[in-house]
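Hello Y.,

Per our agreement to keep a running log of every chain we model this quarter, I'm adding this entry. I've kept the format consistent with earlier entries: sequence first, then predicted structure.
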Amino acid sequence: LRKELEEAKQKALKELEVAKNELEQQFGSQKSNYEKEIKYLGSSLEKQKQALAEVTKRKRELEIEKEMLTNEIARNSDDKKIDDVAEVSPYRSNFLGELEKLLTVVTTDDVETTLAADAVKAGGLTLHEMQLLVREAMERCRDVGLNY
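Predicted structure for the entry above:
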């Protein structure tokens, strides 16, 4: 009876040992599977962190660019307002009156004497200076948009 008991005991111990080994193998394979999954999830997490960092960086760049464009638009609209408000004041001189007076003189002798007299009165205005003034007046008229 003892022998049978001892054999049953040994048999039960062997069965327990086999069951224990099977469970250790199952747990070992589950453990390695979980470790692989943890590594995969860790690498996936790192990739997502990098992607988030890149998106955040790009977002900051776009916000800065948006702010710069907004400032430029505001500056351009201010410049346009200034351009709209800016008016050209007419150039005032007695040049046209002097020119008309010279053109009404009939003879060349009279023109020369009139020019000489006007030159003395005006502080030494020569014919060349008069031509320069005419060119300047024409340019100013073109700038303002007058066809003269």
